[in-house]
Structures are given as C-alpha cells and as structure tokens.
C-alpha cells in the first residue's frame, strides 16, 4: 500500500501530534492508579509509517491519529497488567483472534508447519496471560457467504439499479479507506456491504461468544493479529462500536511483526514455546488443523463468488478457475462463457496503481467487470506491510515466497461446509434473511467529505 509520492518517513499526523499522543498512551498505561514499574515498561511504541499505511497526511484526523497510536503493545500489556492486580472489578477477559494470512508468516519465519505455528503462537500468547486464542476463518466464512448472496442479488437487479454492478470486495480496509476518503459515492455505492472477516470476528467475540460465556461485551478485551496496519484503522470505525456497552468490536490490532517484536523483547524463541491447541468459539471444543479458503493470497472472495454465481445464475459448475494476467501480475481477470457469450467477468486488482486505473475506467464508463476483488497491497494480504518487510522497510521477497508456499499448502474448505456457521445462522442470527443477520454481518460505505488538499492526494 505504498504512496507513490511518499518516502519512508513517519506519518505526518504522528509527528505533529507526538506529544499529545504520548500523553494519551502514558495516561492509559497508568490508569489503574499504580506508579510501580512492570516488566513491559520497556516495550517500544508502535510507529505508523507512510509506506505502511494508507492513511497518510489529512486522510487521518487528529483523533484517529491518537487512537491508532494507542493500538500498540503498551495497550495490550496495560490490560494484561490490570488482570494481575487484586481489583477483580477491573479485570478483562483477553481474547486474541488470528488472521489466516498471519500464520504463514510465523511458519515461514520460524521454519515450522502452519499447524505448529498456530499452536506455538497460541501457547506464547497464553503464557503472557491471554485467556482465549481464536482463528478468524469462521468469520471469513460468514463474510464470503454474505458477499456471495449480495453479488447474486445485485446481478439480478443490474437492469433496474444503476449502481448494482460492478460490486467491489469490502474486506480490505486500505481500499475502503481510500474509497471513502478520496473517491466519490460513484465508487462507494458499488462496495459490497458485507463486513470484513476482522469485524465479523468482532461481532462473534463480543456478541455470540460473550453470550455463551455470560459476559458483558465491555468485559472482553479483543485483540486481532493481522498482516497490515490498516486493520488498526478499520477497528476504529464508528459503525463497529456498541454504544450500549461502550465497547468496540475490536479493541486493539497488532500486526504479525509486532507480535514477533514482543517475543524478541521477552527473549522468547518460538521453538521453545509449548504447543497449545487454538480455542473454538464453541464450549468444550478446540480447533483442528488450520484451513483456508480458495484464493492465492487472500480469503478467496473472487473464486468463491465466481463459482457461486456461475452455479446460481447460469447452472454451471466451475471446478477450476483460470486467471488471465493483463497489464501486470496484480491485475488478473476470470471469465465465464455460456453459448458463446461472456456472462461473468471478474477481476483481481491488487495495489493502488491498479486500483487507480480501475477507478478511472469506471468514471469514464468503460468498466466491464461484474466483480472486482480489490486489495491495497500489491501481491495481496500475505504481503501486508505489518509482516512481509525486511529491516530496511522493503519487501522481503524470499520470506514472501516461503509464505506463499506455506499458504497454498493449507487445505481449502468451502464456507458452505462449515456446520457451525449454518447452526449460528439459525440459532444466533435468527435465519439468513433476518434483520439480526443484516445488522450483525453488514455495514454501509459512503464518501466522507474531505478538504480540497485531501482530495488532491496522488497514490
């Protein structure tokens, strides 16, 4: 997600408000009223860099800058330390959710299988005081299923509704941020309304799991381990906050690299950590082997939606998808032909150069795709700036190649085959077409009024 005109320097918002933000974090760190030092006081504060994050300069407000700055290791350990105090009224149940695209990073970096990496990561987090460690694949199941259904509905309305098609994927917060802050409603009206896996996981942890454990959502501190920094911004969205409980669905996002930094600062080797099975949202169960969705470097929205639409709309069973690379390897298309006519035309557009070209064609009325899987990072989610970087800030291509090999070796699972998801639709969400399902699994996107300088950003 690199800004073409920006060098590797700290975010200007962070620089301008460094004193304010440091004060905010320090206040949070000592909010338990204790002045004593603890073993985590030496942890480094997170720094957001222009090349790490889409939200450079006026894309991020003063308040957002301060709140993003608080989403670091200090905040994580503030909660862990509060739990060590005697005042149980301040204790939190600490739950960590792991993104599937983060696990290959740990596997490749420490020369482990992906299942070993998941269990050792779980063991390490629990050794710090984390109570539950979850896999977000189930949340991606929900997100893909809802996206599939929405695409079919949009396709069926395409002749009556001007903005029904194309439909753009909504899972990448860097793309969403760019669309809302820089582009117009011409674009945002085309974005799928299904929440991203991260935020659906927030609903599952603070909603379904909290109810199962008889906990108020504000008594759970929910951390997500993710490949990129933009996930921190996504967690701050107002629509992902429950005012009734004064509780966000995701309280803190740490990148994969930040987790490794915590290990290094505590002189812990992944090889020496005890393996612990990853928890399930369902009482008495543990997760089995790691699974993923079809898709080369992401959650596979394009492949799942394409196959589903081919079957639902045209009665065609697509077994294998053939990608056709166009201008570059990060812009590829997939088509379905029936009776000599192209009836479905999908694309994958990764990186902001391809996104720019895509938006330009849309505005000129020369856009012929029905669906586009849009990801801000060139190379997809595995190449998130929170994990696939070398010490000088450049992509670690050797590590990325290993991660891709690990990821493609993970067995793929159809979201439709997850029986837990089917049961939750009925028992928790009151049916697939219920208002509760709509409110829990969907959101809305629209252009945000920005100053002229914001709209002049060139990526």
UniProtKB/TrEMBL annotation:
| Domain Iron hydrogenase small subunit positions | 393-449
Where is it mainly found?
Answer: nucleus
- Region described as Disordered: spans on this chain: 1-36
Q: Where in the cell is it found?
A: Nucleus
Listed SMART domains? Fe_hyd_SSU
UniProt keyword list: Nucleus, Phosphoprotein
InterPro entries given in the database record: Cytosolic_Fe-S_CAF (IPR050340), Fe_hydrogenase (IPR009016), Fe_hydrogenase_lsu_C (IPR004108), Fe_hydrogenase_ssu (IPR003149)
GO-annotated cellular components: nucleus
Q: Where is the composition biased (Polar residues)?
A: 20-32
Biased amino acid composition, Basic and acidic residues: 1-19
Q: Name one Pfam family in it.
A: Fe_hyd_SSU
Q: How does it assemble?
A: Interacts with LMNA and binds to the farnesylated C-terminal domain.
Which family does the entry's similarity section mention? Belongs to the NARF family.
Name-wise, this protein is Nuclear prelamin A recognition factor
Q: Name the species this protein comes from.
A: Agelaius phoeniceus (Red-winged blackbird)
- Supply the source organism's classification: Eukaryota, Metazoa, Chordata, Craniata, Vertebrata
Q: Which gene encodes it?
A: Narf
């Amino acid at each position: 997600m690199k800004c073409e005109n920006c060098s590797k320097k700290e975010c200007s918002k962070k620089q301008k408000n460094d004193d304010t933000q440091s004060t905010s974090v320090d206040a949070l760190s000592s909010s338990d009223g204790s002045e004593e030092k603890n073993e985590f006081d030496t942890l480094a504060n997170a720094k957001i860099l222009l090349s790490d994050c889409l939200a450079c300069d006026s894309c991020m407000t003063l308040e957002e800058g301060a709140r993003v700055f608080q989403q670091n290791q200090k905040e994580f350990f503030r909660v862990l330390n509060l739990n060590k105090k005697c005042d149980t009224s301040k204790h939190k149940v600490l739950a960590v959710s792991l993104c599937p695209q983060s696990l290959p990073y740990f596997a490749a970096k420490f020369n482990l299988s992906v299942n070993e990496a998941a269990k050792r990561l779980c063991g390490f987090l629990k050794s710090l005081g984390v109570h539950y460690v979850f896999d977000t694949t189930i949340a991606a199941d929900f997100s893909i299923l809802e996206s599939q259904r929405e695409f079919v509905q949009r396709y069926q309305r395409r002749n009556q509704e001007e903005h029904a098609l194309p439909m753009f994927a909504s899972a990448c917060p860097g793309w969403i941020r760019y669309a809302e802050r820089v582009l117009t409603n011409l674009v945002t009206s085309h974005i799928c309304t299904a929440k991203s896996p991260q935020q659906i996981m927030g609903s599952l942890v603070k909603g379904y799991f909290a109810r199962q454990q008889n906990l108020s959502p504000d008594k759970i501190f929910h951390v997500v381990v993710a490949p990129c920094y933009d996930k921190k911004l996504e967690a701050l969205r107002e629509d992902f906050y429950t005012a009734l409980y004064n509780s966000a669905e995701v309280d803190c996002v740490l990148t994969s690299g930040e987790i490794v930094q915590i290990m290094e600062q505590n002189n812990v080797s992944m090889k020496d950590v005890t393996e612990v099975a990853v928890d399930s949202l369902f009482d008495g169960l543990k997760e089995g082997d790691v699974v993923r969705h079809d898709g080369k470097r992401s959650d596979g929205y394009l492949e799942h939606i394409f196959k589903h639409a081919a079957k639902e709309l045209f009665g065609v069973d697509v077994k294998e998808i053939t990608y056709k690379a166009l201008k570059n390897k990060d812009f590829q298309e997939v088509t379905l032909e029936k009776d000599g006519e192209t009836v479905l035309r999908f694309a994958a557009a990764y990186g902001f150069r391809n996104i720019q070209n895509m938006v330009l064609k849309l505005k000129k009325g020369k856009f012929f795709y029905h669906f586009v899987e849009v990801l801000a990072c060139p190379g997809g989610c595995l190449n998130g700036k929170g994990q696939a970087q070398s010490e000088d800030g450049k992509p670690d291509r050797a590590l990325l190649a290993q991660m891709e090999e690990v990821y493609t070796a993970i067995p793929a699972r159809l979201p439709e085959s997850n029986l837990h998801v089917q049961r939750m639709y009925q028992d928790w969400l009151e049916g697939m077409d219920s208002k509760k399902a709509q409110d829990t699994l969907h959101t809305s996107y629209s252009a945000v009024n920005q100053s002229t300088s914001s709209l002049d950003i060139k990526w």
